[in-house]
Specification:
It comes from Micromonospora noduli. This is Luciferase-like domain-containing protein. It holds the Pfam family Bac_luciferase. GO terms for molecular function: oxidoreductase activity, acting on paired donors, with incorporation or reduction of molecular oxygen. One of its GO terms (cellular component) is cytosol. The chain is an alpha/beta fold. It has a single domain, classed as TIM Barrel, CATH 3.20.20.30. It is built from twelve helices and nine strands. It has an eight-stranded parallel barrel, surrounded by eight helices. Helix 7 links the parallel strand 6 and strand 7.
């Protein structure tokens, strides 16, 4: 693996701040959100702008997530997008958060990410997820067969993928690029299945706290309990992904976060659409049940002024023992997205540039 220690070369950030400070590396997860009235092209350009700016600020890694059949998300082809981001940055680690393995033949993933690693050695992460990242009809359209779409097939397909990178795949197939050009492989999860598997394989693990906060502590406990030292890690390394919206005041952060909450509600109710404006989200007539859903989704996330977000993120690190936090910020305007990461770098973490 290109990055045997996922946090090699980083130092705790936030030194010198009074009281409690963030003491783990901070990274970015982006979905290339498509705002209402704009295009997927504009969303991808905004993601490129964000990658460049977070690199300047000193964030450790920048991941994009695979989703399909979702009008609000343009990151449906992570390998293609990562090639573009790598060409427009120079130091930040880039990766998938994640590639949904049930959607793809392992050989295809090995060749795509082997190509990325060959072009940008030591900068590529391959985060692997077990869910399809979409509905079953779309998953079937991607895979064209039900084979491999079940949870039971995931360990076998993961083994095939790793063997393509190592060259241990039986038979005549050689992944080129791929063999000998393995990126840093992570397992992603929102429950205990991938947590346990990551531990048994000795891989780093990233947990989706941003949409499964009730499972965070049990999954991390499973990961650590089952961890076996490997050629990649000698001890567990857990990253926690968290929603983070930082603005000058708590009230503005709450207003900026409105479109994300409404988008997730509509997605879960079968009415996906591009990201609404903050004013549209604020005017939406939530029912009592819908409002309870939104409040529950925000549980354990980070939203508010720099001081509020610092307290929330520090609490999260202390509760989870996370080795790294990955922040995801889904707001309508890219400048507000950039500003959130700037405030966190400069006022929450005490200047990420010092710890990059």
């Amino acid at each position: 693996m290109a990055d045997e220690n996922p946090h090699a070369g980083t130092k705790p950030v936030g030194d010198g701040l009074a009281d409690r400070v963030i003491t783990v590396p901070l990274s970015v997860l982006d979905l290339a959100p498509v705002a209402k009235g704009t295009t997927a092209g504009a969303a991808l350009q905004a993601t490129t702008e964000l990658a460049r700016r977070t690199e300047e600020l000193g964030y450790h890694r920048f991941w994009v997530a695979e989703h399909h059949n979702m009008p609000a998300i343009a990151s449906s082809a992570p390998a293609v997008l990562l090639a573009h981001l790598a060409a427009n940055t120079s130091t930040i680690r880039l990766g998938s958060g994640g590639v949904m393995l049930p959607n793809h033949a392992p050989l295809v993933v090995a060749e795509q990410f082997g190509t990325l690693e060959a072009l940008h050695p030591g900068r590529i992460d391959l985060g692997i997820g077990r869910a399809p990242g979409t509905d079953q009809v779309t998953a079937l359209a991607l895979r064209r067969t039900m084979e491999g779409l079940s949870a039971e097939g995931f360990p076998r397909e993961l083994t095939d993928l790793m063997n393509y990178f190592s060259g241990e795949k039986p038979g005549q197939i050689i992944a080129t690029p791929g063999r000998g050009e393995q990126p840093a492989v992570w397992l992603l999860g929102s429950s205990g299945f991938s947590a346990q598997l990551a531990g048994l394989l000795g891989l780093p693990f990233s947990f989706a706290h941003h949409f499964s906060s009730q499972n965070t502590l049990p999954a991390l406990a499973l990961y650590r309990q089952n961890f076996r030292p490997s050629q990649w890690l000698d001890k567990p390394y857990a990253m926690v992904a968290v929603n983070a919206v930082c603005a000058e005041t708590d009230e503005r952060a709450e207003w900026l976060a409105g479109p994300s909450a409404l988008s997730f509600l509509k997605l879960r109710s079968g009415r996906p659409e591009p990201l609404s404006t903050p004013d549209e989200a604020a005017a939406y007539p939530y029912s009592e049940i819908e409002r309870e859903f939104v409040v529950a989704r925000r549980d354990g996330q980070a939203m508010g002024s720099p001081e509020t977000v610092r307290r929330q993120l520090t609490d999260l690190v202390e509760r989870t023992g996370a080795d790294e936090l990955m922040l995801t910020t889904l707001v309508y305007d890219v400048q507000d997205r950039v500003r959130s990461y700037e405030l966190i770098a400069e006022q929450v973490a005490g200047g990420l540039r010092q710890g990059a």
